[in-house]
Amino acid sequence: MRPGDYITIAFRNIRRQKLRSALTVFAVVIGATSVTIMLAAVFSLKGFMTKQFEANGTFQQVAVSPQTDITWDDHNNGDNNCPTCVHLTDDLAAKIGTLQHVVGVARQTQVGQFQALQYGSQKLRTQQIISYDANGVIKDTLLAGRDIAASDTDGVLTISSDYADKLGFKHNYSALVGKQVQLIAQGWYNGVGVDAIQQFKAQMTWSSTHPGQDGRDYQPAPVSLSAKIVGITDATDQNYVIRVPLAWAHGMEETQMAQITQADQDAAQAKCRNQRTPGNCNSQPVPSHVVVTDELAKQGYSSFIVKTDESTNAAGVAKTIRNTYKVGAADAQTQIKQQLGIFNILGAVLGGIGGIALVVAAVGVVNTMIMSILERTREIGVMRAVGARRGTVSALFTFEAALLGFFGGVIGLLIGYGAVLIANPIINKQLSGNNISGSNIITLPIWLILGVVALTTGIGILAGLYPARRAAHLDPVEALHYE
Amino acid sequence: MVAAIELKDLTKTYHLGDEVLNALDGVDCTIASGEFVAITGPSGSGKSTLANIIGGLDKPSSGTVLIEGTDLSHVHDRQLSDYRNKHIGFVFQSFNLQGTQTALENVMLPLVFSRMKPKARKARAQECLEAVGLGDRLKHKPSQLSGGQRQRVAIARALAVKPSIILADEPTGNLDSARGEEIMKLLKDLNKQGITLIVITHDMSIARQADRVIQIKDGKVGRA
Fold first, then answer.
1. What DSSP designation does B141 have?
2. Number of domains in chain A
């Protein structure tokens, strides 16, 4: 038989039982549509997210975290001494900065002492106050004003746009730039902006008026630091975030201890000696000296973000940092790849559901073909009598089954494409609503189109094998007399 | 005359459970090229089995089937199918036409399997239909034709591949006697053109028209 004859005869037979063929194809269509939509959605989203991370430069970054040790040591208990811990110090940052492929290191920390942000009479709770080197390693998306600059030392900050919204500056962020706000610390804050000696005196005064309470319930007065808003950052990058210059963060995290020196004690005793009634002297020594400890420099930063020259070098740099300095170091690529691996699993699961639909469809094809062969037994007998070989009969029926699968795949793809056309505008709206750039992110890659058609056609062929074999092995004599 | 068909010690055994049925039990016979032979016998005598073996639809249990010098008893499906396609034209009692297709398409069917080009196929099929007097019924479906016309289409289909043998199994069985006569006349005309004609029948009036009658009884060739 000529190739064209297979097509002609197969088409004619499919047309002959229109409803039955249509129902069989319909089952394949359901499977093909679900496989198409699910795989297209999963792989497009994965690709979209990968692109987003690449655009952010995240793949070039390595996040360094301190080495901590949770082993309790009785000999060191109560002490901060942890011999195996490695802090993220300025010294370490400088060393990492000299490594090959490293183009910049941003020291990063959180400031935990300030609970409120006050603008005029409005007071908002702070969520996180962060600080990092203004060296371009970590990028902010600014909606108004300017970013924190390397030259900023204190008295300035940026806030995320959701704060600005709360303060009533929605759609008018630039109006908030240049405004003064207060960062308010309640409780035992003793960083920059606190007069430690005054605080000591205040506590002493409180204790003298509250005898027997041992100063336990003493509440220091709230401390507020004044700052000018220089910029509004995009809340979709990070929400409810306040950023301050790193130098200021050092000040906020420092501890000031009022210390009573020998001279202070001598002064107090001298005061008593000068009193008329010795033995009943209640003159307490007053500290005149304050010891300032830069805790951030001492305890280290919470993390470093290291920028490498190429995203392909990030994993290697992370490894070098881990091995050389015994600190945690993770490149975004490795991490994100693991996270995106979820999409692979999701794709496999969803594709599997479509696969089950296709298996059911295959059973439908087998059934249709067996029915068709039963009905056409006499016809097969005639075909054999006038010279059709077994192989020809087999190929003819296999081709017919393949055609059912092929049509199912093509129609399924068309419906899937229609679903993509409907879904994309909806997703576009969502994306633009959340200020994420990107449009028509779901695509039907050529491999998916070819793959789905090949899959359904292949399923048709597999489903046709048994019925075709049955047709080919019919006894022509019996087939000719089949009623 | 040259022997077209030589059958030697042909047996065909069917096993029906424990029962062994000898449909053919040592058949020897020779049919010359261009001969018109009638095979007769009561039903169940084995005449259809014999015809099926000659036509290459069935294989004997033992013995040899020589058709124009080629032994068919041991060939594979491929050769047997090709043999049916090239050398044999079947005519059945119940016509066995494809109801959904036109007369022309029915006649073209054997040519599809001989890989003839579509244009040549159509021309040849038309030629055959004209030869059986149905040149004006090309686009008719079997349901639109009378019994006699249907059998003519079947004969045209048998003729399509220019066979050397036409095997007709009760060709007039479903027709009235007048139509039957017409069909027999058509077959005899083809025989006169040199085609070996084998007619299986239990109708003695048809058998008498043959050059020779082979009578089968209980799987054996009897005397005519």
1. -
2. 1
